[in-house]
Write a structure and sequence with these properties.
The complex is a heterodimer of chains A (261) and B (260).
Chain A lengths: L2 H26 L3 H21 L3 H22 L4 H22 L7 H6 L7 H30 L1 H6 L4 H23 L4 H13 L5 H26 L3 H18 L5
Helix pairs in contact in A: 1-6, 1-8, 1-9, 1-10, 2-3, 2-4, 2-8, 2-9, 3-4, 3-8, 6-8, 9-10, 9-11, 10-11
Chain B lengths: L3 E12 L2 E12 L3 E5 L6 H9 L6 E6 L5 E4 L13 H5 L7 H10 L15 H13 L5 E4 L8 H18 L2 E6 L2 H4 L5 E6 L1 E6 L1 H4 L3 H17 L6 E2 L5 E2 L17
Parallel strand pairs in B: 3-7, 3-8, 5-6, 6-7
Antiparallel strand pairs in B: 1-2, 1-4, 8-9, 10-11
Helix pairs in contact in B: 3-4
Classes of the chains: A mainly alpha (261), B alpha/beta (260).
Chain lengths: 261, 260
């Protein structure tokens, strides 16, 4: 196998592994649209990174965290519903990113790559960043698993039982931000949420415990990465969208499997 | 003298410009069942949330026994249908809970058979027992129950109140609970605190039910209902309707014993 394909495969598998448990929480906490908004803001992060000349992964993470803070502040200060706010922020940050990038005429960037991913162009350097980021998310997620599950089930009950709710929630947002930064190169800002929620939704039907669902989501996501990359390799389709299409196909296939009961 | 677990002194709570609690006093002792009662919007839940530390009072003193372990039973639990969670896994969310302590707590609340059921699929009454078991897993010194019988039919309510008394006797903990039907908690509560933004009256249930402040708040009918189990002194007409002794009574079809 050529090196770029090996890199792509490793990057995709590692992302799917992390996206499984994190995506399960996105599904349980009904935060799909929140994830979508954060990933739209990633493009603004890229522009910011180019402007300030810092690592794009760091810039994207910072951009997402900044957006999460703005969102929380807006939620507290005015009466608009969350989905309205998310809609405003998602599209205005995406547009802001595109407008900012257009000002930087001296820098040639591959916009399609950012929007829909450029998995086959993952370099060894990129891979190292991705592995580091994913490992960080995985370790933090293991550590936060129980408190995060507790606040997902009942926030006040968890608080009375001594869970530092605000800190755990912030940590969760940070984890999503890091995963978006990792995933941007793989499926692009417009498709990131699908990698979080489609495998989790597919695993949900057959899981009996939260852990089964998280692990099942990881495995299904990894399968989708393999199938998608194969499709891309043999049929010359774009890698990111091929992975998403494979994940969606797996999700639909799950309905044909009889539900255990 | 039993030990004081929580003491609220002159607690005020304002949301925006609205005063929800004014000069609220509350004390709960070890081994004592205190029932908080009052109309909707009287500030019962707010007071309980202050006791729990979920809300910070605008002013006044809140004292908790140092290191106080509180077991909290929330009013309701909504778990997303997409989250596969059995009763046992739900109870395992409490730190240090293991299979043995969990089955014991479920046995204490009469819900041992639910261990492997998904939390989304059990009935309202069963869910209350599971929530109570979760509160017990903390080995609480104080149990705080927010409307523990909500959504449960009357016979189930009586059973649940008896269960709470049994648990108080077994665990020796103090209990603070919200209820809005004094007549049901009469037998099972040591002290009633009647709240309508301020503490209207408090004391032994039989005493409170005849207190003018309580009667003014709930109307003579509720107060009468609270006493109803002691005396059957109303009359029925030929159709079996209850005949009020006071001719001007506005709701002649409800039971009342204003002639008592």
């Amino acid at each position: 196998m050529p090196e770029f394909l090996v890199n792509a495969l490793i990057a995709g598998l590692v992302l799917a592994l992390v996206a499984g448990p994190l995506g399960s929480f996105v599904v349980w906490r009904r935060m799909a649209y929140f994830g979508d908004t954060l990933s739209h803001a990633a493009l603004f992060g890229v522009a910011l990174g180019l402007l300030l000349d810092i690592s794009p992964m760091l810039a994207v993470t910072l951009g997402c965290v900044l957006l999460a803070v703005v969102l929380v502040l807006l939620q507290q200060r005015q009466p608009l519903a969350s989905d309205t706010l998310l809609g405003i922020l998602a599209h205005s940050t995406l547009s802001l990113g595109l407008v900012t990038l257009s000002f930087m005429r001296e820098i040639r960037i591959d916009l399609m790559g950012y929007l829909f991913g450029d998995l086959l162009a993952v370099t060894s350097d990129d891979l190292l960043w991705m592995l580091g980021g994913s490992l960080l998310v995985l370790v933090l997620l293991l550590y936060l698993w129980r408190p995060l599950l507790a606040i997902t089930v009942h926030e006040e009950l968890a608080r009375v039982e001594g869970v530092p709710v605000v800190a755990v929630r912030l940590a969760f947002m940070l984890l999503i931000a890091v995963v978006i930064a990792v995933a941007m190169k793989i499926v692009g800002v417009l498709l990131i949420t699908s990698l979080l929620i489609i495998p989790a939704a597919a695993a949900q039907r057959h899981a009996r415990t939260p852990e089964q669902m998280a692990l099942g989501a990881s495995l299904l996501g990894m399968l989708a990465v393999c199938v998608g990359l194969a499709l891309s390799w043999f049929a010359d389709t774009p890698a990111g969208p091929s992975i998403v299409v494979s994940a969606a196909a797996l999700f639909l296939l799950g309905f044909m499997w009889p539900k255990p009961d | 003298m039993t030990e004081t677990l929580v003491r609220l002194h002159d607690v005020q709570m304002r949301f925006a410009q609205q005063a929800v609690l004014v000069d609220a006093q509350l004390e709960v002792h070890q081994g004592e069942i205190v029932t908080l009662i009052g109309p909707n919007g009287a500030g019962k839940t707010t007071l309980v949330r202050i006791v729990l530390g979920l809300l910070k009072a605008t002013s006044g003193q809140v004292w908790r026994k140092p290191g106080l372990r509180i077991g909290y039973m929330p009013q309701k639990l909504h778990v997303e249908a997409t989250l596969p969670l059995t009763v046992e896994r739900f109870l395992r969310l409490v730190p240090q809970a293991d299979h043995q302590t969990i089955t014991q707590a479920l046995r204490d609340t009469g819900a041992a058979h639910l261990l492997a059921s998904p939390v989304q699929k059990i009935s309202g009454g069963e869910l209350q027992r599971v929530l109570l078991a979760r509160a017990l897993l903390r080995q609480p010194q104080l149990l705080v129950l927010d409307e523990p019988v909500q959504g449960v039919d009357v016979s189930g309510q009586i059973e649940l109140y008896q269960l709470i008394t049994r648990i108080r006797n077994q665990y020796g903990c103090g209990v603070l609970m919200i209820s809005h039907d004094l007549h049901l908690v009469m037998n099972t509560t040591d002290r009633v605190v009647c709240l309508n933004h301020h503490i209207c009256c408090s004391g032994h249930p039989a005493q409170v039910s005849t207190d003018p402040a309580f009667v003014a708040l709930f109307g003579a009918e509720t107060a009468g209902l609270a006493l109803y189990r002691h005396q059957h002194d109303h009359r029925h007409d030929m159709q079996g309707h209850i005949v009020p002794s006071i001719p001007c009574c506005p709701t002649p079809h409800k039971e009342s014993n204003q002639d008592a």
